Amino acid sequence: MERKLFTALQGDNANLLNDSLSKQGFRRSQNVLYRPSCSECSACLSARIDVNRFAPTRSQKRTSKRNDDLTRKATSPWATEEQYELFRTYLDQRHADGGMADMDVFEFAAMVEETPIRSRLIEYTDSERELTAVCLTDVLDDGLSMVYSFYRPENAKRSLGTFMILDHIAIAREAGLPYVYLGYWVPGSAKMGYKAKFSGLEIFAGGQWSAVDNPETYSADEHPLSNDPIAEQVANISLPDLRSGNT
N or C end of the chain: smaller count of CB under 10 Å? Predict the structure, then answer.
């Protein structure tokens, strides 16, 4: 049974709280920060890419080249009908049985627009000015967090999901930000396996970030004692000092 530890993200110090908890494995969904906390499973591992340690593979270089025709534009987090149409196409073809399958246009707008922190929509259009891919991205003090991305699924050769990660690495590098946060990686999961194909990958486990040198050595931990009790987890969370601006 899924269980999450979560807190509201609001007020004048929302950015500071988001920065602090993102470094401790939390993710944002609208105005909530959450982290998986299942009682007998710790398979979901928060993952990020160390930009300075990343080196593209030959396949990733080819992916970047195949998408040379795309134009990137960063906009404010404001939902449009064109975005929603692309979002629906993506869900219907890739995640028709997922938890977001029934999301309507109002729920989509809430996902995009209800953000109390510094967020951007990164849009990619092709040479015909057709919207091809979109990523809702949070700007943290130490990196970019890819909250949710979607794209045209009909052209699989483009590998648009991989391309957007590669482009976010480039954006972070240009901005002098050390990390790109990818969300959660589950070892052995076919749907999340693409995250392990990026060099410089790190995971948050045991209260710290560590480098993943060989993803194949990791397995989903479903031991009854794999997670600390909720009270211990809360006690070990480091909260920002709102008076000084330091954690």
Answer: N
The pLDDT assigned to 3 comes to 84
* Sequence-distant (≥ 6) Cβ neighbours of residue 84 within 8 angstroms: 105, 108, 109
Report pLDDT for 244. 52
Neighbouring residues of 195: CB distance < 8 A, sequence distance ≥ 6: 47, 182, 183, 185, 201
Comparing CA positions, the residue from 14, 10, 8, 25 lying closest to residue 145 is 25
pLDDT computed for residue 246 by the predictor: 53
Distance CA 120, CA 148 (A): 11
- Helix/strand/coil for 201: strand
| CATH, range 45-220 | 3.40.630.30
Do residues 210 and 53 make contact, with C-beta atoms less than 8 angstroms apart? Answer: no
Beta-carbon contacts of residue 116 (< 8 Å; ≥ 6 apart): 9, 10, 11, 14, 31
Residue pair 126/132 in contact (Cβ under 8 Å)? The answer is: yes
What span, in angstroms and rounded, lies between the C-alpha atoms of 99 and 29?
Answer: 14
Beta-strand pair 131-139/143-151: antiparallel
**Separation of alpha carbons 27 and 16, rounded Å:** 14
* CA proximity to 184, closest of 34, 8, 32, 14: 34
Strands 119-125 and 131-139: antiparallel
Cα dist from 114 to 56, 80, 136, 183, whole Å: 34, 14, 12, 19
Q: What residues in the chain have per-residue pLDDT under 50?
A: 245
